Amino acid sequence: MDRRVFIVVAAAAIAGAARAQSPAGLLGASGEPYFTDWLNAFYEHALAAGVPRAVVDRELSGLSPDPRVAALDARQPEFARPVSDYVKANISPQRVAAGRAKRGEIAAFSSIEATYGVPRDVLVGIW
Question: Which residue of 23, 28, 111, 125 pairs with 43 in a disulfide if CB–CB is 3.0 to 4.6 A?
């Protein structure tokens, strides 16, 4: 066997074995590399956060990306038209008044500001 061919075949076999031993491979997940890379990282993060392995295995087993989600994601109005058009169509005096009223009503804003440093005005704007 040609040395170059051997190296390519060996590298492919090692990559395949590593993929099979990854959480995505062990769980029978499928999809593009971006998805399996995300799944592997998420799996490790969940374990590090203290989620029991049995729960992580059960919930992530057999996952694959849903192509409809990617198609719908590309058509979100926030990204499909200029920001100025989106703001004009979605901001009204009534919504501004509702946001101002909620700004003082929602007690969790104080906790979020203190814990994460996100100003309540930003949170209300997103909400």
Answer: 23
Residue 11 DSSP label? H
CA distances from 3 to 6, 12, 105 (A): 5, 14, 72
Per-residue tokens: 82: 């200029």
Tell me the per-residue pLDDT of 86-100, one tens digit each, with 9 for 90 and over. Answer: 788 888 899 888 888
Nearest CA-CA partner of 123 in 105, 107, 93, 103:
103
Give the tokens for residue 113: 């500001």
Contact 62/27 with Cβ under 8 angstroms?
yes
| Spatial distance between the Cα atoms of 75 and 69, rounded to a whole number of angstroms | 10
Q: What are phi and psi of 90, to 5 degrees?
A: -115, -10
Tell me: the pLDDT tens digits for 4-45? 555 544 454 444 444 446 777 777 777 788 888 888 999 999
Would you state the structure tokens that stand for residue 107, as one six-digit string?
């007690």
Q: Are 43 and 23 in contact (CB under 8 A)?
A: yes
